[in-house]
Amino acid sequence: MSLEEVRIVDLTRVISGPFCTQQLADLGADVIKIEGPQGDPLRQQGSKIDGMSAYFASFNRNKRSVVLDLRSEDGMSTVKQLIAAADVLVDNFKPGTMDAMGLSDASLEALNPRLIACHISGFGQTGPYAARPSFDFVAQAMSGFMWTNGKPDDPPLRSGIPISDLVAGLYAALACAAALAVPKPLRNFKSIDIAMTDSMISLLAYMATEVFATGRTLPRVGNDHPLVAPYGLFETSDGHIAIAVSNDGIVDRLFTLLDCRHLFEDSRFATNDARVQHRAEIREEVQSRLITDTTATWLVRLNNAGIPAGPVLDVVSALTDPQTRHRDMVLETPAPNGSSMPILGFPIKQSVEAPTLRRTAPELGQHTDEILRELTEAERR
Amino acid sequence: MSLEEVRIVDLTRVISGPFCTQQLADLGADVIKIEGPQGDPLRQQGSKIDGMSAYFASFNRNKRSVVLDLRSEDGMSTVKQLIAAADVLVDNFKPGTMDAMGLSDASLEALNPRLIACHISGFGQTGPYAARPSFDFVAQAMSGFMWTNGKPDDPPLRSGIPISDLVAGLYAALACAAALAVPKPLRNFKSIDIAMTDSMISLLAYMATEVFATGRTLPRVGNDHPLVAPYGLFETSDGHIAIAVSNDGIVDRLFTLLDCRHLFEDSRFATNDARVQHRAEIREEVQSRLITDTTATWLVRLNNAGIPAGPVLDVVSALTDPQTRHRDMVLETPAPNGSSMPILGFPIKQSVEAPTLRRTAPELGQHTDEILRELTEAERR
Predict the structure, then answer these.
(1) Which residues of chain B neighbour A244 with C-beta distances below 8 Å?
(2) ipTM associated with this complex
């Protein structure tokens, strides 16, 4: 495993932080999840399988759980011993909380001068909003992301998943992994500061860069693409199909398939710029042809012609799709009572040192004794 | 810089691949972007500043550009020399294309037995759909992600940014960084296989895990949260405000602030489960109070009470927001003609070895001579 020798003290809870440390755990790190006596609130969220939250199970595999009361002297002394022996510390407390607990960056550096300390927060550790409470939804709203979703007259729409939490978690994991690429003897104390809002802004892509170039935002175009046409969600005789026509070559293939190459002679459709200007008309031309047959039939025809296209799958269909199954994106794992519990799979596939399930998500405090014993043994040596 | 000694041969174009290699370049790697004589198609997408696509500029900083014709013997021989001397190779060709070019994993391993070869694609290198053409929009549709966005009767909606490309790029960068944490002498050839659809499925969070636990999908709830209430986008006297009430403590603070703690005595609102069941009614109670004042006033009151809340910013407002500016999420860089060109900033902030702008995005082939000279010099040694 790539991160086999790496030890991580994990003070995170709910999503952004646990998702970060799960990436590192999946890649081989020994992640010690510190939980208060009540446990990570995610243990109580969503439906359970044999007493274990399915949500918690999918985002906390490959970790060990230790219960410590960080408000007690004993608990704080133990966590400091763990930090002194760790490579990485991750937290997703509101800025200021670590300081108040006596775990400021200066204290952390004194405890462990080679530590990588990664802080995940809503707005970041600095700036006018640093002290504000935040949450995934707020980052979706304030990053511009929500505004980009939907048609011109629709209200702004959040994505149905906690995308800001997850993307911030990915950036945090990336920052930690890159920091671990520096050989340990050469490492200096490093404080990493990942903000959910920054993370979402970094993904604004052409929505941001058109502002840079023109001072104006691109129109909100729903399922269409603001820079390319035809592109979008079309109706078929029995449902929908998503078609992504990203360049002139693919438009040519699409018009050939739909037997409408004569449209290129129409000045409204001759170039991409013209088609974007006449978005509604070109959409109507394509739509009127696609409505004549089923999604499944069009899918085969379009893909055979090299045109990216797909059905819109609901979550159940996506999770049971043959490709999802083939890619092991759903893993059957043992449930606490010995039956089976599905969790999400590993998106990082590799030929060697691939992520594997070494441990299912731990019960609260499952490894407290084990880790305290390891600490005592390490002291004796 | 964390990845200072790392050399990357970058065969990617458009978004997912260039976003991956840009992360690694920002963290210090020497990224050699190989472009055909026509250049990366992204150079022609979106509006330009002094002849440079603003979109290309934001996703290709810190890289060097080399023009090679990979269909010529000379070009292929040069790229093989570069691969032999590299730590990492990244491509985002359709599966099969690398093999057809003579750059199969077996050939790559023969060229460089310590190489990290990272392949990014729509559906992955394996499985029933591996050979299908794909694109961000198709991954959004087939992963279940589009289905989660919107209200029950809305059609499925893609996000306004190429989220599947970007998330796949982040996973690819993470996989490469973790692989680089293995000391070079211990590295074996590694083939990494990142799929856009897998990447999006891994983010389905509670939308997936509720299926695992109950066999049913959660309802599509637009801007509300399927597991928590009240939560969502509310109207104020002059606009909207996003409020994320994630636990009972925050509900208590919200009801106190809105002077409606008596609602706890109503059995419909006493617990989170009850409030989720009576989503429309609790929304109406909260909405009727928020409509009485402005977004700005509520924002101060809510944040002072420790309740996560924020305005919905359009992209221009998000990019010019004081926090965005403070966090340097927009960087002013020199444009080709000497004027100024904004690009997106670095979401990874750290106290040492922080990402910096070492180079603006290169002109096509700007470093061809430089890199060919380096190759010749390396041979002489």
Answers:
(1) 135-138
(2) 0.97
